[in-house]
Amino acid sequence: MRKIRVLIAKPGLDGHDRGAKFVARALRDAGAEVIYTGIRQTPAAIAAAAVQEDVDFLGLSCLSGAHNRLFAEVVEELRKQGADDTVVFGGGVIPKKDWEGLRAAGISAIFGPGTPIDDIIAFIEEKSPEDAALKG
Amino acid sequence: MPLSPSELLDRAAAGVPAAIGRAISMLADRRPGYLELLALMYRRRFDAEIIGVTGSPGAGKSTLVDAMIQRLRAGDRRVGVVAVDPSSPFSGGALLGDRVRMQRHAADEGVFIRSLASRGVLGGLGPAAAQAARLLGLAGFSPVIIETVGVGQAEVEIMGVADLVLMVLVPGNGDEVQCLKAGVMEIGDVFVLNKADRDGADRLAAEIEMNLRLADPGFVPAKRIVRTIATEPKGIDTLLDLVDEMFADFKASGEAERRRRVKMKRQLRAHLRREIVERFYEYDKRHNVIEQAVDGLLKGEGDPVAFSRSIAARFSAWLGGLR
Description:
The complex is a heterodimer.
Chain A: E1 5-9, H1 18-29, E2 33-36, H2 43-53, E3 57-62, H3 67-80, E4 87-92, H4 99-104, E5 109-111, H5 117-127
Parallel strand pairs in A: 1-2, 1-3, 3-4, 4-5
Helix pairs in contact in A: 2-3
Chain B: H1 5-13, H2 17-29, H3 34-43, E1 50-55, H4 61-74, E2 79-85, E3 94-96, E4 111-117, H5 127-138, E5 144-147, E6 164-169, H6 175-178, H7 184-187, E7 190-193, H8 201-215, H9 221-224, E8 225-227, H10 236-253, H11 255-287, H12 289-298, H13 304-322
Parallel strand pairs in B: 1-5, 1-6, 2-4, 2-5, 6-7, 7-8
């Protein structure tokens, strides 16, 4: 079974990346290869990184409230750059009322503050490509 | 993307980023079709320049590479980067943290950055890095910069992949002592003294010079040592001019050819080692020699060297019997 590759990205201008880094480290400890983009990324830059790194999953973190627009833009950029098969999930400060809209826009799951990391790991195991796994 | 290896390579060579990314994954993961991809790749002409960047963790390699990309792009070069980071021996996962320092180039289609995990390869550089660099070269990126983690000794591997190696050292890091360790001085073509505004820069420079002079009394410091402050950036122009000059010298003197041969030999040897070890593990699976040997050793029936020699002899005989 091959390794799972994950990109963790922070679109927009919000600079709070404790949560993003926490998830990145936890996924590394669960056996994934994780790339972190750093803060203040444009949707185009995130999509370009996802394509170059050929990741299976893309985690978007946003605490500024601009998630609706930004997350949708990232998904659109992924499509434009030929990476439609990337599974996108989100986290940060995202009110429940926005979850349905985000799902419709292509975000497979939202993990708000306080989500047990095991939930994210379970999600990744469930959605992994057939030939990939976190362990083994 | 259910493309054949041939179609994938055509697209990658045409510069399609998604194809390049997927092709690198195919090679790094040894996915079905990768052998065909390799065969096709190596039939194509390859003339990209590969620059290795190595040095201790914390030397500022990624920041340096980021500054190099900036300057190279200003000169219209298309730059490829393969950034290698260690995999955790415990979880098997990895945090690939080099890209974060170069991410401002992400949306520039004249730059392609790929992070790779070492995946248990001792010393960090497995075949995937060389193969990724080759692919990037075929896609029109030159130079291709390979960045590794190094503590000097383990990074001899970089000489099997790069045409020219930058060894990054930092004052106050204990690198003065690193200089004395065998191998470090022989690995670098150019010694980059980064964070050159720190205390101890002069002493480190003197240490490097002394060691280089031991190997070659006629060496010219300005041709081998560059001081940089990658964060400003400072010294990058000088560094890249020196690199260009070196590449030109290599071409003129035949050194480039010699290095190509050395690289190919090293890569072939590394692959052979892997092949042979894999065959041994197949043999062991069938005959359980290792477990039996360990039983004997723990009972005090001999020493590990004698046991290994005996196993190797039996393995050889077994291989002979297969023909």
